[in-house]
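Example record

One chain of 99 residues, shown exactly as stored in the release files.
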Amino acid sequence: MTELQLDIIKLESAASKLRAIAHPMRIAILELLNDNNKMSVTDIYKKLNIEQASASHHLNILKNKGVLVSKRDGKKIHYSLKSNTLNEIVHCINRCNEE
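Predicted structure tokens for this chain:
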């Protein structure tokens, strides 16, 4: 029984991450971070041509769901993908768009 519960917990965690990713702007953020390794909020909102508040909102969702990590560097906070597995998800999304 314990193994089944652990699997359910892992599946719920994965589903939560996928729900966080399932937004066009968040996918765009993941693609940027996949290409650039780490970026500040300023870099992200300027590159995507969105408001700073919008970028911060999406970054917080991704960070809270364990998709991104952040590191403070002086006044700036740099975001990056939490794991290489997320790189594979971004590549998979891109391959789906090619078909």
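Notes: The longest helix spans residues 2-21.
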